[in-house]
Each structure stands twice: as structure tokens, then as C-alpha cells.
Amino acid sequence: MVNRGLFIVLEGLDRSGKSTQVSRLHDQLEQDGHKARIQKFPDRITAIGKMIDSYLRSEAELDDRAVHLLFSANRWECCQAIEQSLQDGVTVIADRYAFSGIAFSAAKGLPFDFCASPDIGLPLPDVTLYLTVSPAAAAKRAAYGTERYEQVDLQNRVREQFKLVADKVRTMHGPDRWVEVDAEGSIDQVWERIWSQVKAIESKKGEQIHRLWT
Ligand code: T5A
Ligand code: NA
Hints:
EC number: 2.7.4.9
GO cellular component, one term: cytosol
Structural class: alpha/beta
Shape: globular
Protein name: Thymidylate kinase
Helix content: 40-55%
Pfam family, one: Thymidylate_kin
Bound molecules: P1-(5'-adenosyl)P5-(5'-thymidyl)pentaphosphate, sodium ion
GO molecular function, one term: dTMP kinase activity
């Protein structure tokens, strides 16, 4: 029987360097002979993803709760494929996941428990690497674009909500499921920190997949 793949999530504020590191991790794993694939959330390709995309680009208006549920539905529609990949021995690297779902919607003012509940039962990542950058360092990177949530005051509220999300993950699933990674410094420096964390979870390939928030 093949070992299952690992389920690794990268989270962080906008511009923390997630996508850069996700693709680097993917390339390194393949170079080392592992099977790996990237799953971006939101997945803007599906019918639900297209609605989310037009909302984020401010081409459509949606009720806060409705769009929150769309982000969650977007994860549920990808969840079978994720589990299949893991069973087939493919490591899945997710660029954001349910944790962004809570942090952004709660930062807009929705109740935290409401934000967490639609994702109950999704596959639990083996580890979530939370990339931390100070607001000042993030602002020095490529300027925020025009997407809906790319504003400094909202990002500061999102950062506060991510602290509560981290507490919930550590309390319910154990401290090793949520790891903060200092994302300041060069891309190479951040990469070294990420790679050492990924190497530390190899043994989880023998464990069964758990369920989020259960
Ligand atoms: N959202 C998402 C919800 O509200 N609910 C949900 O459930 C989910 C899943 C879109 C929005 O959706 C919200 C959150 C978001 O606001 P997205 O598509 O992931 O989410 O957002 P993107 O705009 O694609 O990605 P980010 O803006 O978050 O950027 P990344 O991926 O963190 O950063 P990256 O790698 O693209 O890098 C940004 C810039 O910085 C440079 C890069 O070259 C690039 O120019 N950079 C560095 N510069 C200096 N030093 C380093 N170490 C650097 N690393 C990267
Ligand atoms: Na990104």
C-alpha cells in the first residue's frame, strides 16, 4: 500500500508570500520524486468560484453571509478530489483554506462561530503554516491591488481574527497543527523555514486523515 500524501496548508495575510512559497514547495517535492499538487482557495475556476471571483473584484455585490457560505461551498466541492489525491499518495498543498474563511468574514463583523460552522468535517490539514509579516513589511511588497479586502484597516482586523483561529486549532487539534513561520526576509530565507517544517511532518503519512473542528 502506498503511503498517503500529506495535506499542507499555507495561510497568512494578503501579500505574506503564500503563493510564492506554495509553488516553491510544489517544485521541491516533485524534484525529490514525490507526487504533489497545488489547490488554491478560492478555486476561481468552478461555477461557485466564478461568483466569488466577481465579488472579490467588486463586479458583483453579495450579502456577507451568502459570500461566506460560497467560500465554504467552494472548499466542499473540492474536498473529494483532495481526499482522493491524499489516498493516491499525492501531497496536496493548499494556498489558503477554511482558516482564511473565518478570519476574513469575522473581521467584517460576522459571528466567529457562524464563520467556523459550515467547514465542520472538511479534511484536517496535517499542518497549517501561518506566514507572519508586519503590516510595514507587507506594505513594502508589491502594492495592494484593487481587490475588495486589500485595505490596511481590514487586514489588521484579519490579523486579530487569525490569532483566535490559531487558538481554536491548537485547542481542538493540538499545538503541532498550526505553526507560525516568520515570513520576513528574503524569499530564500522564508523558504528554508518552510522546508524544515515540512520535513518535520513526514511521519504523519502513516496516520489517518482527521476532520476539521470535530
Ligand atoms: N478569502 C479567501 C476569504 O475571504 N474567505 C476564504 O474562505 C478564502 C479562501 C483572495 C481573497 O479571498 C479572501 C482572502 C483574500 O483577500 P487569494 O486569491 O489567495 O485570496 O489572494 P491573492 O491576492 O492571490 O494572494 P495574496 O495577495 O494573499 O498574496 P500571497 O500569495 O500571500 O503573496 P505572493 O506570493 O503572491 O507575493 C506577493 C508579492 O510579494 C513578493 C512576490 O514576489 C509578490 O510580488 N514576495 C516577496 N517580496 C519580498 N520578500 C519576500 N520574502 C517575498 N515573498 C513574496
Ligand atoms: Na496568493
